[in-house]
Amino acid sequence: MFDGFGICFGYDLIGGETTNETDVYENYVYRTTDDGMEADNYCSNVRIWKNVIHDTFVGISIAPAFIGPVFVIRNVIYNTGAPPNQAYGGKGPCCGTGFKFQHPEPKSGSGPIYLFHNTVIGGTQSYGIIVSEPAIFYKLVSRNNIWVGENRVALSIRTKQLIDFDYDVLWAGNYYAIAEWPEKGTRFNNLTSFASSTGLESNGVQINPGFINTHEDNYQLSPDSPLIDAGLRIQGINDDYFGLAPDIGAFESK
User: Fold this and answer.
1) pLDDT score of 224
2) 3-state per-residue secondary structure call for 123-155
3) pLDDT in tens, 218-227
4) pLDDT, mean over the chain
5) DSSP character at residue 192
6) 196 vs 190: CA distance, rounded Å
7) 175: Cβ–Cβ under 8 A, 6 or more apart, which residues?
8) How far apart are CA 152 and CA 24, in angstroms?
9) Domains in the chain: how many in total?
10) For residue 12, is it within any domain?
11) Would 114 be classed as within a structural domain?
């Protein structure tokens, strides 16, 4: 199919009720030729949590979410980027991504978006996350996420807007650059240079997450993972952690 499903009201909404008050959780979405899940258009008080999405061109699209807020928490997304014989594999935007943030009509801008404790592993030639023009993001916050680009940068920012990314893990595998932001110097070979140039991820970490078994799509943290007890406490989000501090990523180890 094209998209897995959409959550919010469409662009043609005129007047009337605009709130969703919707929880989208514990779904399993795979083999879509575009987005696994869309939180586009008029989204208000939408909470997306503990979903598994794989083998899609884009994992979750928030492009953009008018009104807001949208909370995206503890989702696992892997193997993004459609194969060449599917809709966007050989034409259209390159390579796919776990998260997509954009929209061709930037006038209204996006409402608040919060990304907490997600684990995202881009497929071959796929980005971990893309934030792109021309949409306006008044509040886009990322904490305790794992962004992995196997053969692309983990984080691609193509917007002049201020966003708030920190305390995340970025890993690009064998790729030579960890992040890119053309407005700030194109590509960055390491997280230290990216943080000093952009002000983002000053408390972020560039390290192999240490998953249990990526070949069997098991993205829980191995017992010796450096991400265990390494996360930032976020009141109301990860208060039920085990150990000294929350783990980074979608899973909390016991």
Assistant:
1) 96
2) CCCCEEEEEECCCCECCEEEECCEEEECCCCCE
3) 999 999 999 9
4) 86
5) H
6) 10
7) 149, 150, 151, 152, 153
8) 29
9) 1
10) yes
11) yes
